[in-house]
Amino acid sequence: MLNNINKSNRLNNLSYAIRGPVFEKAQQLEAMGQKIINLNIGNPAPFGFDVPDEIVHDMIMNIRNAQGYVHHLGIFAARKAIMHYTQQIGIHGVTIDDIFIGNGVSELIVMTMQALLNDGDEILIPSPDYPLWTTSVALSGGKPVHYICDEESDWNPDLDDIRRKITRKTKGIVVINPNNPTGAVYDKDVLEGIIKIAAEHNLMVFADEIYDKILFDGAKHIPMGSLSDDVFVMTYGGLSKNYRATGFRGGWVILSGATHRAKSFVEGFTLLASLRLCANVPAQYAIQTALGGYQSINDLVAPTGRLCKQRDLVHYKITDIPGVTCVKPKGALYLFPKIDLRKFSFKDDEQFTYDLLCEQKVLVVSGTGFNYIKPDHFRIVFLASSEELETATGRIRNFLDHTRTRVDELELA
């Protein structure tokens, strides 16, 4: 008898809730002809957010030049444009060779952990987080250790909790700012506190800043790499969100600060960059134009812009539901509402998202899918049109009203 072919043991406790069991159920329902309102993934294209024409034009004009392999770090013009961008945002001392281009930030995150971690090494990751960080650490043989982001402090990281969780095996701290899933834009003193902790304990900092231009209400993004020359910082950015080019898979990572301490790591990281030969070449021809051209994202996040108005709409509609609260996001594309579970008959966020999908045909993601410690949050993407968001939030309200406990109904009466 032939043995079954099993997945790696490293995958046993890993998941990606954004495309997990509830998402699979949504696909089944769509295959049966039912229309689902998809508020589960930060993918601008299906909602009418197009890549700027000048970026598409430059890719088309250079497509003949993109037929062959290029330098494993990326084409010179793209890396030079990123280097100039670091000068604009205050990250000092970055050279062409300190910039690596990848097939989106996702590939570079996985490569980073593969190049860095030995079995049992620990990485501090925010809770809630973008789950790829947790998964990539575990896949690379490391141990993800989650530090608390405090909802009562606008979702800023808890510095004391970070300190408590550092051990002799800790190698670095992940900072996601602006944050996915909470939409937080971190305070400068908190970021400086993280840099201070990293310096004290000889740790790397991994700064996921893919949403650095998606800011609301005058919020200011402070790049981690601009805060210290004494800590080794890896800053991740790309085309996916600021330029609505998720499918182009054009991302980069910038090495800054104490790069002289990381020569061995950089050798390993460079080896991995070489093994995949090169990143997607057509997208690399879009980078110079994107960074140097008109920043249309500023129009979208302005008070009269579509993204800002949709954020305001969803925040108002969600927080108007009794039993639901939400810190208003200052950046990114998401809200992370909290449900008072005492007021409703479902047991946790996973049951809420599954039942909401089945009954109201609205797809969101549970908060525990982002490695949050409490089962009482969910994430909404506010990319859909205002009309569709009105419909979706109305359905969420209907669902919650129908699942209220009898005690809560009497209190509201």
UniProtKB/TrEMBL annotation:
EC class: transferase
SUPFAM superfamilies: PLP-dependent transferases
Cofactor: pyridoxal 5'-phosphate
CDD domains tied to this protein: AAT_like
Keyword list, A-Z: Aminotransferase, Pyridoxal phosphate, Transferase
MF GO annotations: L-alanine:2-oxoglutarate aminotransferase activity; pyridoxal phosphate binding
Protein EC: 2.6.1.2
Domain Aminotransferase class I/classII large: start-end pairs: 35-396
Family to which this protein belongs: Belongs to the class-I pyridoxal-phosphate-dependent aminotransferase family.
Protein name: alanine transaminase
Organism: Emticicia aquatilis
